[in-house]
Amino acid sequence: MGRRYYCDYCDKKFIDDIEQRKKHLQSSYHIKLRNIHYEHCKEPETVLREELLKIPCRRFLQYGSCQFEGNCKYTHYSPEELCQLRQQVEHNQIMRRRRLEEILEVPSVESWVQKYHSANKENTDIIHTFWSYPALFEKRLDLPPSLLKFKPEQFVDDSFEEWGK
Ligand SMILES: [Zn+2]
Ligand SMILES: [Zn+2]
Description:
Domain C3H1-type: 56-79
Order of helices and strands: EEHHHHHHH
Zinc finger (C3H1-type): 56-79
Pfam families: zf-CCCH (PF00642)
Bound molecules: zinc ion
GO molecular function: zinc ion binding
Structural class: mainly alpha
Protein name: C3H1-type domain-containing protein
């Protein structure tokens, strides 16, 4: 038994010699299945663009099938199916645009630094913190030092000989 050739499109196995292979690859059966396969791999945009250029296939409309299948020069899509296809294409475009915007929303380091400087320019005495001190605590006298509100005037000594003492 010689080598065998397996055709993915047709799910067919046959003895692999040049003549047989050539004959198979040129057969209308193989071409039809190959075209159907590529039709499924096409982007919806491409299918829509191509199908909108075609006029409806009368054979397909009348009998529900057509020997040319995906290879037909007329369209096998009904107006409803074309409408659905268009909606899918539009949905895909929106999602793509949204994804692109999300990527663009990450600011550059330069723009961040610029924004930081302009926000802190007006008053350099104000310390910007990411938290706010709870107003409830301001009047309380029973808090441990670590929970007391920090006041700049309490900051009298910045020469730390040793940390943690
Ligand atoms: Zn084949
Ligand atoms: Zn047709």
